[in-house]
Amino acid sequence: MGETVLVTGGTGYVGGWAIVALLERGYDVRTTVRTLEKADAVRAAVGASERLSFAAADLTKDAGWDEAMQGVDYVLHVASPLGDENSTDAEALIVPARDGALRVLKAATRAGVRRVVMTSAANAASPASYKEDSVTDETLWTVDDPSLPAYRRSKTLAEKAAWDFIDSYDGPTELTTVLPGAVFGPILTANNVGTTQIIQRMLTGKMPGTPKIGLEVVDVRDLVDLHIRAMVSAEAGGQRFLGTGEFVWMRDIAEALKSRLGEQAKNVPTRQLPNFVVRLASISDPALKAITISLGRRNRHSTAKAEHILGWKPRPAAETVVECAKSLIAQGAVRR
C-alpha cells in the first residue's frame, strides 16, 4: 500500500488493536512508546512484523514528536497520558491530556500529515444534566463544569483544544475526532487489560453487586475500524463521529455473562445495588464516587452519522462482553 500510519501509544489497549488492524490492511505502522525498551512487549502482543516500527515519544514532553512524524501519511492519536481517572485533581488530568493532544497536532502539521484522527470520548458530547433521558449527537458539546469528574473534563477540554488549534491553522492537515463509549472486547495480552477491568472485576467476584449504571458498549475492534474509516474517508475530514454502541445496564452485562459462560461466570454478581448503597460506599471509595453522577442515568448517543457517512456498524453488546470475558479467562487475567 505504501502508506504509513503513526499510532500513538502502542502499549495501550486501543493502540494495540489499531496496530493489528492496520497491519492486516497492508499499512506500514509506526507507533510511539515512552521508551524503546517497551518495543518488545508491543511486538509480543500484536505480532512481529517488518512493517512495524517504533519511535520514542512521550505525550508530556516535546522531544521525539517531530522525528516520529517523518514520512507519516496519517496519525491515529489514541493515546492518553497516564493518570488516575478517579482523581479529584482536575488539573493533573486536564493539563497533560490537552497538552499531549496539542503536541501531536503541532508535530503532525509541521510534517504535513494528511489527517489526524483523535480519540475523544462520548462524555465530550453529553448534556449538562445527567438526569436527562435523551439521545444526543455530535453537535452537542459538554459544558465544562468543575462539578464533573476530572477525567470527563479532561477529555472534553483536550478535544476542544485540538479543534481550536485546527481552526487557527492554515495548512493541509485535517482533524477528525472519534468519541467512543465503554470500550470492551478481547485483550491482546494479560499485561494490558485496559478498560476491560470492569469485566475482569465482575468475573473475579470483587464486586458485591452491580450498580445501576448504564454503558454504551463498543467493541475495541469496531472502534478501531471506525478510526480507520474516519482516516480514509474523503467526507470525514473536519468531523466528529460518535463511536458508542448498544446501551445496556451493568446488570444486563452480568446476566449475559452468567447465561453464556456458565461455571466460568459463577462469581459474577447479578444483584443490583440500590443507589443509596453505592452513594454511601462512595464516601470512602474514590472509584465509586466518580460514577455516582451516572447512577440511573439513561442518556444515550446517536451513531447515525458514523453509520451514514462511514458505513460503520457496531456489533451487539452481549457478543462483545462475552468475547471480552472469554479472552480475559484464556489469557490468565482472571484470578479469584
UniProtKB/TrEMBL annotation:
The keyword Oxidoreductase applies. One of its GO terms (molecular function) is oxidoreductase activity, acting on the CH-OH group of donors, NAD or NADP as acceptor. Pfam families: Epimerase. Keywords: Oxidoreductase. Transmembrane segments: none annotated. Coiled coil: none annotated. SUPFAM superfamilies: NAD(P)-binding Rossmann-fold domains. Residues 5-238 form the NAD-dependent epimerase/dehydratase domain. The keyword Oxidoreductase applies. Belongs to the NAD(P)-dependent epimerase/dehydratase family. Dihydroflavonol-4-reductase subfamily. This is NAD-dependent epimerase/dehydratase family protein. It comes from Kribbella antibiotica.
